[in-house]
Amino acid sequence: MLSDDKISHLSHVILKGLAGKKLIEVLGEESKIRSEIKRTITAELRVGEEIDAVIRKKLQSYSKKIVEGSPEWEILYKKFYREEEIKRGRASG
Questions:
Q1: What is d(CA 15, CA 36) in angstroms, rounded to the nearest whole number?
Q2: pLDDT tens for each residue of the chain, 93 residues long
Q3: Can you tell me the distance from the alpha carbon of 10 to that of 8, in angstroms, rounded to the nearest whole number?
Q4: Other CB atoms closer than 10 Å to residue 5's CB: what's the count?
Q5: Phi-psi region of 22 (alpha: psi -120 to 50; beta: other; left: phi over 0)
Q6: For residues 29 and 17, what is the distance between their CA atoms, to the nearest angstrom?
Q7: Cα–Cα distance, 4 to 72 (Å, whole number)
């Protein structure tokens, strides 16, 4: 998880970038927009951590011990992570 300071910094960078490229027009208070950006980042990170926990538990449940960091573990982790993202509507299949 990122620290609150890093998330706050990212919200400033994102808002500045979107407004600078004229992808959005800031009509309200910038602080409210940054708060919403921070809330969204935090929620997405939380979901990512939940998916990570589910995948790790799944890999640990295999009768054959799969060593974390091994090529087999990496392939299965990425495959299961992608499947979980699709299941949760975070990615298209």
A1: 11
A2: 789 999 999 999 999 999 999 999 999 899 999 999 999 999 999 999 999 999 999 999 999 999 999 999 999 999 999 999 999 888 887
A3: 5
A4: 8
A5: left
A6: 16
A7: 35
